[in-house]
Write a structure and sequence with these properties.
InterPro entries: FAD-linked_oxidoreductase-like, Proline_DH_dom, Proline_oxidase. It catalyses: L-proline + a quinone = (S)-1-pyrroline-5-carboxylate + a quinol + H(+). With about 160 residues, this protein is α/β, with parallel strands linked by helices. It has seven helices and four strands, in the order βααβαβαβααα.
């Protein structure tokens, strides 16, 4: 059995749904609460998988969260290709983070959404909105993303 930990997802939809049902919003009041909750859950899951057969995918574009999780994993003896832990990011986002984690010996996957434009574009716009900090990506991220695009183009032709 495996677990995938994500943050964000459908913030505005969740707020509206909770309000329409008379429930308290499941969305944290501020971004720091979101970071703290994600980091606490990641730590809990990492501890849980050390002694069992379970695995976890930590889906995050947040460098601080990934760094904390990677350190915790190494402290617990998880790393260097261990199949119990995988980090994941959306293809084209946080490329430097993905390469850094991979170079540190962790399994990394890139999520590539595909489908009809009317379905995929709203999804990607939500991801971009939730990750506004990535829109001003570092120079390294821009270079690495450009290289990925060129590599993909060369495979097509």
């Amino acid at each position: 059995m495996g677990f995938k930990l994500v943050r964000g997802a459908y913030m505005s939809t969740e707020r509206k749904l909770a309000s329409s049902l008379g429930y308290q919003s499941p969305i944290h009041n501020n971004i720091q609460q979101t970071h703290s909750c994600y980091n606490d859950c990641a730590s809990f899951l990492l501890e849980a998988i050390t002694n069992g057969s379970h695995g976890v995918i930590l889906a995050t574009h947040n460098v601080q969260s990934a760094t904390l999780a990677a350190k915790k994993a190494q402290d617990l003896g998880i790393g260097n290709g261990n199949q119990k832990l995988e980090f994941a990011q959306v293809y084209g986002m946080a490329e430097a983070l993905s390469f850094g984690l991979r170079n540190a010996g962790f399994q990394v996957s890139k999520y590539l959404p595909f489908g009809h434009v009317e379905i995929v574009m709203p999804y990607l716009l939500r991801r971009a909105e939730e990750n506004r900090g990535l829109l001003s990506a570092s120079g390294l991220d821009r270079v690495l993303t450009g290289r990925s695009v060129q590599k993909a183009k060369s495979c097509l032709f």
